[in-house]
Specification:
By secondary structure, the protein is mainly α. 71% of the residues lie in helices and 2% in strands.
Length: 264
Amino acid sequence: MKIKEILKLYFKYASVCTQSVMEYKLSFLLMVIARFMIAFCELIAIQFLFSGFTQIKGYTYGDVLLCFSVIQMSFTFAELFGSGFKSFSGMVRSGEFDRMMLRPCSLILQIMGNSFAVGRIGPLFTAIVTLVLGIRHSQITWSIMTVWTMAVMIIGGMLLFIGLFMLGASFCFFSIQDTALINVLTYGAKSHGKYPIDIYGKGILRFCTYVIPYTLIQYYPLQFLLGKTRNWHLAFCPLGITVFLLICYFIWRFGVKHYKSCGS
């Protein structure tokens, strides 16, 4: 399929999912408000923390807000577009994935289009508010390069989380059930990623560099963005997420190749 046809089909999937959710407008509104409030409470927690401190390991209130907004946006966009992978175990158990394999269409496209999580936009509003506050309180000199850095951090973060969702779905080929480890790596990263990773110590920093590369979309480009280093190469670190995404894709393909129907 051509890219134009893929995008057209995906947006058709997304439109159907959105119309389905909007059939229950009150439920949708309450879901958005609830998710907004949960994310907003995390912002309030940061506010309370900095009411007693001016800095955390050299990072100011504005620095942490920028960090939080990047992770929040990345995770929200990943859930918006990739939540189909999060519910993949249900597709396997119900036999829905078997039906998908019979269709002359990309499996990834079908899975991503199967669950366009428009209800996840609540935290996005919080992330936008946080980003505005972070820009106001930070001392960043904005330029084309810093805007680029911020943009690729968000996009790279989205691809990282989608890759993790895909990795979790790959394990379902062999275990049928969801794996708690992936939830730790995704929701745990979202929770702890609102602060620069190096505040947790060198061990965590190494793990988040060489095992699950969170630092490529957070710590390293953040150093350049905040002016803590003049090494402009760090602004391109998020591009390295494409390698991680390819690894997740190959694991996914391995799972598909060895998939056996669960008999539902």
